[in-house]
Amino acid sequence: MGVQRTFAGVFHLRIEGFYHDISDWISRDYQEDDFRDDVYINVEDVEMKGAEIGLSYTPIPDLSASIDYTYNDAENKSAIAVTEKVAGVPENKFVIGVDGLIPWINARLNLRGIYVDKIYEDLPTPAKPAEEMTNTKDYFTVNGRISKQITNKLTAWLECENLFDKDYESEIGFPAPGRNAIVGLKASF
User: Fold this and answer.
1) Strand ranges (DSSP E) for 61-173?
2) What is the pLDDT of residues 141-173, one digit of tens each?
3) Domain residues for 85?
4) Residue 62's domain is classified under what CATH number?
5) Residues 12, 67, 137, CA angle at the centre, nearest 5°?
6) Contact between 47 and 63 (Cβ < 8 Å)
7) What is the C-alpha to C-alpha distance for residues 131 and 34, in angstroms, rounded to an integer?
8) What is the helix (H) or strand (E) element at residue 184, kind and residue range?
9) Which of 15, 37, 44, 145 has its CA 20 to 30 A from that of 80?
10) What is the dihedral of CA 21, 53, 120, 81, to 10 degrees?
């Protein structure tokens, strides 16, 4: 559920709340020392509640800046839970962005900076109640895209993820890709 409002014709604010009551949440149980077939476990009951807040500013038609924040309070509500933490779910995420037209080449530029705080991975379970909690480190990456409309029906674009080649893990033991670029051509008929 949420609300949106535009102020002074240049600010757009949105506030949204969410609540998820999840039965049979499947989570990954990381086994670094002992590989077994039962890597995925049923956590049973998970509750997620939180909010998303976004503010954008458009001072002129071809330029805008935005900031978005997501707070997610995820809790393991299972009867046999050893901890309230939930693996694989960040509590805080920020996205800042700039979108604009580069007038001298008539191309659109989109930049997004994404910050994600720690994500829990290894958690104590009923089978391993003494398991030490582990988590990823927080990280900040920047993605960019530039696109140029060649004709009314043809647009070329270049997109780059992880623009500054940041080393990070969104899951323990699984390094995220380094800088990568995609070139595309879109035709509309």
Assistant:
1) 63-76, 92-102, 107-116, 139-151, 154-161, 169-171
2) 999 999 999 999 999 999 999 999 999 988 777
3) 2-187
4) 2.40.170.20
5) 155
6) no
7) 13
8) strand 180-187
9) 37
10) -20
